[in-house]
Amino acid sequence: MERLTLKDVAKLAGVAPSTVSFVLNGKGKQMRIRDEVAQKIMQVAEKSGYEPHRMAVNLRTGQSKTLGLIVESISGSFFASLAKTIETEAERNGYNVVYCSTENNAQKGAELIKMLGRQMVDGYLITPAPGMEKGVQQLVQNQRPLVLMDSYFPGIKAPYVLTNNYDGVQQGIRQLVKKGLTKIAFVTVDLDLIQLTERQRGYVNTLKENKIAVKKKYILQLKYHRQQSDSLRELRSFLEENPELEAIFFATNYLGIIGLEAISQLGLKMPDDLAVMCFDDHDIFRLYPPGISVIEQPIDNIARTAIDMLMQQLDKGKGPLKKFAVELPGRMILRGST
Amino acid sequence: MERLTLKDVAKLAGVAPSTVSFVLNGKGKQMRIRDEVAQKIMQVAEKSGYEPHRMAVNLRTGQSKTLGLIVESISGSFFASLAKTIETEAERNGYNVVYCSTENNAQKGAELIKMLGRQMVDGYLITPAPGMEKGVQQLVQNQRPLVLMDSYFPGIKAPYVLTNNYDGVQQGIRQLVKKGLTKIAFVTVDLDLIQLTERQRGYVNTLKENKIAVKKKYILQLKYHRQQSDSLRELRSFLEENPELEAIFFATNYLGIIGLEAISQLGLKMPDDLAVMCFDDHDIFRLYPPGISVIEQPIDNIARTAIDMLMQQLDKGKGPLKKFAVELPGRMILRGST
DNA sequence: TACCTGTGCTAAATCGATTTTTCAAATTAA
DNA sequence: TTAATTTGAAAAATCGATTTAGCACAGGTA
To answer: Is B65 within 7 A of strand C by CB distance?
Structure first.
């Protein structure tokens, strides 16, 4: 059960290794190999079950045909939705994917990028997190194929594709306002990421647009580096201190889930005591009674677009990217909570 | 920004490439390289930031230092819990991991195994699903390092590690019985997988052990290849047709989640109208009021054990596996639903 | 007849490492 | 003093492919 090599196939077909290589790589015509010989080679390769040795090909061609996908958490729902599409799309293009997660460890982000470099991935798909600026910056400088997803670093000229966060929140807040609600809280987290500031901007401006005063005390910024139980407690206090609140908008599904727990613990009924809306859908929001309204991110579309943009960069001939920054609209899904 | 090669380092240090290789691979003593020279080489390598070319190393050594992890669904909760541990444990051993999912496509399972073979993974971690028998059989025959997780194929002599399914269900049913419940339903799915039959065996035997009659009509076997909405409907009918039921045990979390929807639609209150317990925990079960009691699988432990067993196989010298089949106990988590 | 030209393929170089072999110089043994 | 051994490192082979250069041979041309 020894591995079959190109040489073996050549011997079986009675030709030189190079001839086999030409034929199997579709360069038979170009190298003026007779159809007769080409046929024979194809046949032998087929029936012997020959598979080229990936590492050898990689070494010679300098291409690993592998993409690196870096996400924050491999067990998060964003990754779960993303990975499948990324994988199938990559495969369609003849690439496979290695996944890495920073697991909320700022330092690890930088290491990962080096790690992937050492492993020779041909391109990077990255969801930016704090601490990865330098690494990303370096990739850009070295002109490595790269697409950021879900966020980007202002000031670093890397292609990105993400949800139109501002517009998404606007859709949501407008809906709440349309229902006659004006006392609307916004819960976010103290991370310096563009998608969060955009979401907050959406909240603030949409309130203004509707002539609703923006109260600072209605904006709760939870600490990211905290036990979940602490955040839960803080959220509960926030709700208790502002009993007049009619609605609450969570900037991420992670926050929304904590929110559900807090709301449940306080015995509040949705939507009558409190209307709830959340950015980014999650299985739980579909099931949790009475169903939580959300702004759904077009994750599938993000994945496909990202792969497209990456493939464009990998096709050396194609020149610079047509679209550098892509923003895709989110979709509001209304459920019982509003 | 050209890649630094071993040769470059050799030139910089004023020695031959082979010498550099020996030193950097810790074979300096063995090859009697003078400490002085070794020091110099180390220094040059360090400060030049040299990183060996993975593909070249792989080609020469025949080891890719990569493991293949095949799961049913990359967006499932089982994978989510598994992946992180697998990845960190693998990394600790100097391996990285490529993930693949069969996405419930029986045929794809077989292809995947070939695909990974072509990519030259050094070992396989597989959660068996229908349709993969042949592929796994082949790996065993070719003596490829392999560990099955979560299930196994009776008749195929491959190492595996999984939850003690029988015992887990037993814990759960005993708890229900202790609460004085006797009319207990068991919902499973029509897949021919050992973990499901084991769970069912646990249900049947534990009832018998408590002198409770096992009624066939209390066992519902849903069709796997069905729309979720169809399963939901069937489950609803089942509950309506057996209104006397006091408790229901779901064999998988996937089933349990559908169950929650059915129970909610019928307006049943847990645990008074119906006590609910489910095999395999899930985020939703923690949050969904009043909290769903579950038998939690020791996924972390499964992952660690699996990697251990795989590493043992990869250490050629070590001989055959000490433990071939490992069963780890599940843990019952009681919540409001019972 | 001698000289190109095109055809059809083979030989050899290459990718970047590891590993085996070789070899001069220093040391020891006879 | 000469042969045998040890030391320290370089040279060369190798992994399995791709790719460039080269080489017979047939046919056409001057």
So the answer is: no
**What Å value separates CA B82 and C1' C7?**
59
Alpha carbon distance A141, B295 (integer Å): 51
Domain holding A217, by residue range, is 165-296
Judgement on whether residues B217 and B171 belong to the same structural domain of the protein: yes
Which residues does chain B have within 8 Å of residue A100's beta carbon, measured at their own beta carbons? 87
pLDDT greater than 90 at residue B293? yes
The enclosing domain of B70 has a CATH number of 3.40.50.2300
Q: Are residues B233 and B177 in the same domain?
A: yes
Cβ contacts below 8 Å, chain A against chain B, sum to 92
B155 and B172 belong to one structural domain: no
Show the tokens assigned to B196. Answer: 């499901």
Tokens describing residue A71: 């996400």
Give the separation between CA A119 and CA B5, rounded to whole angstroms: 14
Within 7 Å of a protein beta carbon, the nucleotides of strand D are 7-12, 14-21
Residues A182 and A268 in one domain: yes
Answer whether any strand D atom is within 7 A of the Cβ of A56.
yes
At residue B265, the 3 state secondary structure works out as helix
User: Two tokens at A210?
Assistant: 């509707």
Closest-CA residue of A relative to B120 is A54
Q: How far is the CA of A73 from the C1' of D29 (A)?
A: 73
Please tell me which residue of chain B has the smallest CA distance to A254: B283
Position A187 pLDDT exceeds 70:
yes
If one counts the domains in chain B, the total is 3
Rg, C-alpha atoms of chain B: 26
Q: What is the tens place of the pLDDT at every residue in A114-134?
A: 667 666 789 999 999 888 888
- What whole-number distance in Å separates Cα of residue A61 and Cα of residue A59? 6
Report the residue from B76, B101, B119 with minimal CB separation from A54: B119
